[in-house]
Design brief:
Number of strands: 4
Shape: globular
Radius of gyration: 14 Å
Length: 157
Amino acid sequence: MTDKPALLFVCLGNICRSPLAEGAMRKAAAEAGLDIEIDSCGTAAYHVGEPPDPRSVATAAAKGSDISDLRGRQLIKADFTRFTHIFAMDHQNLRNIEAVRPADATAHVSLLMDIVEGREGAAIADPYYDGEEHFEFTWQDVWAAAQAIATQIKAGG
């Protein structure tokens, strides 16, 4: 495990929510002057090697975060010791993560919105099958979480 915070954002296919969360966290970390590791992946192998959904790329770009170079990958056992925190986008992916969690896991695993006061237990809605405006809603949630994480890390938490 690393000495510095290492954050992994996880959704199902790693093309919509988790890349947006990674982009939001990269932006929040840069604004806060944090040196942290940030990555994203999916619990399923549907989109391994593929770029994020164009709607995710456009939404992140409009917010000042370029995620066009990201490529989908699937959660692997080594992630449980490589990262200090693994954030699931929803309850099903949290269950999927826990189902493959190895005995030697050191990462703290939780829902992403658990970090946002008043939103504990909430899921990040999957915008994949919805209109473009739903990607904006997803960004708002992951941005709120990224800011909360950055604040917590700056405070030494």
